[in-house]
Design goal:
- Strands 1, 2, 3, 4, 5, 6, 7, 8, 11 and 12 form a ten-stranded mixed sheet that branches. A two-stranded antiparallel sheet has the order 9-10.
- It has 237 residues and is of the alpha+beta class.
- The protein starts with a helix and ends in an 11-residue tail after the last strand.
- The longest helix has 23 residues.
- The protein is globular, with a radius of gyration of 17 Å.
């Protein structure tokens, strides 16, 4: 028997709170300590994140939030498991550009499947520093939000047609690069390839994959998102 949508959403929120609290606890630990019960910590390496890794400079929030984004490939996480269908992210700037209201949608099981966000739950993103944001449900403290870093966007800062988002710096070592978090985590985890169009022009996703490799990411965590044939729900005002 499949769980109800309400139970799935509730579980995701519980996982978010737990993962966020665990992240805060880890931040308070002595960095010189070699002991950790986390499998993620045990896989970290001095080479991850890559030297000089950072989010983009000269970030234009207005251009980033000017249109919905369609995810072409992504890493699984605690609240979203493959196969992936019709994943879309919409952003509305608020508070003079200091905050962003986030509305995510996806279909479960197929392009005509049940909407994952059928209850129209909004998230909130807080601008931490330029292209570094922190995201979480509107009803929890901002201290419990997770990192959302725009690490690549183009073709220029006045018009974004594509981008790469990471759940903060990729601190864990993979087989062929670095990984942000793990598939069992909510905060400080994830990798997403964004395009402005649901079905992008040929070569764009390959270009994003090449750029992600240049940035030092392990692409083995990425899984395809089906966008062809999708009908997207309206974005609430």
């Amino acid at each position: 028997m499949k769980p109800s949508l309400a139970s799935v959403v509730s579980l995701a929120v519980v996982l978010l709170c737990f993962a966020s609290q665990l992240h805060l606890l880890r931040a308070d630990e002595d960095p010189s300590s070699s002991s950790s019960s986390s499998s993620s910590s045990s896989s970290s390496s001095s080479s991850c994140p890559p030297a000089g890794f950072d989010s983009i400079s000269n970030f234009n929030l207005s251009a980033w939030t000017d249109h919905p984004w369609f995810i072409q490939e992504q890493m699984a996480n605690a609240y979203q498991k493959p196969p992936f269908y019709c994943v879309r992210a919409s952003y509305t700037p608020q508070e003079g550009g200091k905050e962003v209201r986030v509305f995510n949608t996806a279909s479960l099981g197929g392009v005509n499947g049940t909407q994952q966000n059928a209850n129209d739950m909004f998230l909130k993103a807080v601008v931490v520093n330029g292209s570094k944001l922190a995201v979480g449900p509107e009803f929890i403290p901002q201290e419990m939000y997770g990192s959302y870093w725009i690490v690549f966007a183009g073709p220029d800062e006045d018009s974004y047609d594509y981008g790469i988002v990471s759940g903060g710096p990729p601190k864990n070592s993979g087989d062929d690069g670095c990984i942000a978090g793990s598939e069992s985590e909510v905060n400080e985890a994830g990798l997403w390839l964004f395009t402005k169009d649901p079905v992008p022009e040929p070569g764009m996703v390959d270009m994003l994959r090449e750029k992600a490799t240049e940035l030092g990411f392990d692409l083995s965590v990425l899984q395809n998102v089906t966008q062809e044939g999708c009908e997207y729900p309206p974005i609430p005002v």
